[in-house]
Amino acid sequence: MEYTWVKKKLKADYFGMVSGLNCVLQGVDGDKTETANFVLVIPEHAEEHADAWTEERINAIAESGRENLEIEIVRKMNTDEEVNAQ
Predict the structure, then answer these.
(1) Element (DSSP H or E) covering residue 4
(2) Strand pairing class (48-49; 32-41)
(3) How confident is the model over 50-84, as pLDDT tens digits?
(4) How far is CA 49 from the centre of its chain?
């Protein structure tokens, strides 16, 4: 199985204050492809301007959720196989 990040996107308001991060991981196993994502919601009192969000920081947060996303992708692929076998 090969995994690739297909999206790591900040959600910011008009003033550039970041209120969330959406990360999407794609898994490919032969001809099967599946995705899983997580959304980090930042409380209003903890919002920071987009300038404070470096690529390294975004990548570190994304990688912290990678294991759970990989598990979810495998679960989805196995569920699809079970449905197709019926």
Answers:
(1) strand 2-12
(2) unpaired
(3) 999 999 999 999 999 999 999 999 999 998 666 66
(4) 21
The b-or-e profile of 22-56 (16+ CB within 10 A means b, else e) is ebbbbbeeeeeebebebebeeeeeebeeeeebeee
pTM: 0.86
Task: Quickly count: other Cβ atoms within 10 Å of residue 9's Cβ.
Answer: 12
Amino acid at 80: D
Phi, psi of 77 (to 5 degrees): -65, -40
Picking from 67, 70, 19, 56, the residue whose alpha carbon sits closest to that of residue 40 is 19
Q: What angle do CA 64, 17, 8 make, to 5 degrees?
A: 35
Q: Do 26 and 9 contact (CB within 8 A), yes or no? A: no
Amino acid letter, residue 84:
N
